[in-house]
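Need a sequence for this fold. Nothing fancy.
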């Protein structure tokens, strides 16, 4: 239904609109979107066994599309709209023309820009969850899981930490661009869902080689470069804090990659490409809650720690702790996102620099890293900040374990959470009727696809007979 002309804006560039900020925010949002499609679509489709390439990449593509419908339908306002509870906003559509063309709740640009920017963050969160479930989750279950999880988990975390009305935001938590809201959430939820879905076939768990490492690097590159928008868009403006956030992001990431690579070479005697990608991801995740709040030297320290601590939890602790070994987290989302996200959140509470905090949070003296609080004789304020950071970790952990578990239990009442043994043995062809690569002869695998010309003709003849 269109609005009366009298209710619509009278000019395309109202006085409150800053074209520079608006342009950057739209670019940043698109960079984040490219991290999912095609970034994670390519990464997931290439880092798995050939028989899972289509299913893995399609889980990411579907999640991105479903997230947008849910987001504009009700989830945006549940995350950033009118308060219903201290941890959740009131459901409402984000499609009202008058509202979308008016100024958003932050920044000097339209609400439509903010809806789009926050959508790509919501979408990549659920796409990351897919990484823990690749190789055995029933696609029908995934179709149901995505909108339920975005509705009942993501919105609560986003409202509590990022909305000005959220209880953790009011308490003074520091999460610059989503270390808690996105990465800790996706890591814990992916790990929890992996528990309920169960493990892959023993054959797949024992040997799961990438089908195309060159494409894995291409997907990883899109993820890395796209993070300029991920962290650079967090200040809601094309300002000096955005520039610092982008530089810190790349410095931390490069350091983390090199540390992970060095550990692989020292322990396993070979420079692993997949290992380097893991180190890249942990660096990106770790700096996310701190990107515009810390100085460059702190970003390097964070890179050193994000390249070593998640490496240790993945390569050493995971093989020794029975509980971790029992849960089949296909792409180690728990280590690369939950562990790195927690680490980044804690380090933000240590290295958050007061002057940089003011650039982002405004003139509120509560925001101070423990290291600076000790230097300035404000130890109580520093420990308070660390306490708030740990409270945020605990809240996100409990929220996602509980909500993800409830969703998985409910979904399996409708459809199986897990593929059949036969489907897991065959992979893409059994699930989608399609293969990623026609490598046997002249397109033989495509001849058996549901979309091949021959199969299409058979289908048409069947319809005509009916």
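Here you go.
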């Amino acid at each position: 239904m269109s609005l009366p002309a009298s209710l619509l804006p009278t000019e395309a560039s109202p006085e409150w609109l800053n074209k520079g900020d608006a342009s950057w925010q739209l670019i940043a949002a698109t960079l984040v979107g490219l991290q999912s499609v095609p970034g994670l679509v390519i990464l997931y489709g290439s880092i798995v066994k050939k028989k899972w390439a289509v299913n893995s990449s399609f889980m990411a593509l579907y999640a991105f599309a479903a997230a947008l419908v849910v987001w504009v339908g009700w989830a945006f306002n549940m995350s950033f709209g009118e308060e219903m509870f201290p941890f959740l906003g009131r459901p409402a559509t984000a499609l009202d023309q008058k509202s979308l063309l008016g100024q958003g709740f932050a920044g000097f640009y339209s609400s439509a820009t903010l809806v789009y920017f926050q959508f790509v963050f919501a979408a990549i969160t659920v796409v990351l969850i897919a990484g823990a479930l690749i190789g055995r989750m029933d696609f029908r279950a995934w179709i149901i899981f995505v909108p339920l999880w975005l509705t009942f988990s993501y919105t609560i975390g986003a409202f509590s930490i990022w909305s000005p009305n959220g209880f953790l935001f009011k308490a003074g938590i520091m999460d610059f661009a989503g270390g808690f809201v996105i990465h800790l959430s996706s890591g814990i939820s992916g790990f929890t869902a992996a528990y309920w879905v169960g493990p892959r076939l023993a054959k797949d768990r024992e040997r799961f080689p990438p089908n195309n490492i060159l494409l894995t690097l291409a997907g990883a590159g899109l993820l890395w470069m796209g993070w300029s928008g991920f962290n650079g868009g967090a200040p809601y403006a094309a300002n000096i804090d955005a520039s610092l956030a982008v530089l810190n992001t790349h410095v931390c990431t490069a350091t983390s990659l090199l540390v992970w690579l060095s550990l692989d070479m020292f322990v396993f005697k070979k420079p692993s490409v997949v290992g380097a990608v893991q180190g890249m991801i942990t660096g990106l995740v770790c700096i996310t809650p701190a990107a515009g709040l810390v100085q460059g030297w702190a970003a390097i320290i964070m890179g050193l720690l994000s390249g070593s601590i998640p490496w240790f939890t993945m390569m050493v602790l995971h093989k020794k702790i029975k509980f971790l070994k029992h849960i089949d987290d296909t792409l180690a989302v728990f280590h690369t996102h939950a562990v790195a996200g927690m680490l980044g959140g804690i380090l933000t509470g240590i290295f958050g620099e007061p002057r940089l905090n003011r650039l982002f949070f405004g003139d509120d003296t509560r925001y101070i890293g423990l290291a600076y609080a000790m230097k300035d004789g404000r130890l109580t304020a520093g420990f308070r900040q660390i306490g708030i950071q740990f409270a945020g970790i605990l809240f996100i952990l409990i929220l996602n374990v509980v909500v993800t578990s409830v969703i998985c239990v409910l979904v399996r009442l409708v459809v199986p959470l897990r593929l059949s043994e036969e489907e897991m043995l065959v992979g893409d062809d059994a699930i989608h009727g399609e293969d990623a690569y026609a490598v046997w002869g002249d397109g033989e695998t495509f001849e058996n696809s549901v979309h091949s010309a021959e199969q299409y003709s058979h289908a048409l003849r069947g319809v005509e007979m009916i």
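For context: Residues 16-423 form a domain with the Ammonium transporter fold fold (CATH 1.10.3430.10).
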